[in-house]
Each structure stands twice: as structure tokens, then as C-alpha cells.
Amino acid sequence: xxNERLKKINLFRKIYKMKPASITFKTTDKIKEALEKxxxxxxxxxxxxxxxxxxxxxxxxGIDWREEDDE
Length: 71
Description:
It is globular, with a radius of gyration of 13 Å. It has helices at 2-17, 29-41, 46-60. 62% of the residues lie in helices and 0% in strands. The chain has three helices and no strands. The protein is mainly alpha-helical. The two termini are 20 Å apart.
């Protein structure tokens, strides 16, 4: 499990370095607080935590989101 987690961490670091796009959205205070709590517990920024949630969803839905040159 450690190696799988390390692979995901490295992937997120790689993605973070090459991100030209930005997304802004509105939400409720309760949702924001919940996301902040999760990100604190996972030692991630709020932005990185939200991206992780989205990436996990895309992977579970079978949606290919990776760039063509990714491994």
C-alpha cells in the first residue's frame, strides 16, 4: 500500500508542476469547512485536496484525464 500511495503522491506532484488551468467555484461554508478538514488531515492544500477528489472520481468513472505523454 505504501508504494501505491507513493506513486499517487509523485503523480500529483508531477501534475501540480504542469497545471496551466484554473477553476473557481462557489460553495457553502459547511462544504468548505469539510474540505478544509479533510485537506488538513491529509496534509494537503485545499486546492490539492479538491483536485485529488476530482481525480479519484474521474478514475472511478473510467474517464481518461491524463495527457498523452504521461506514463
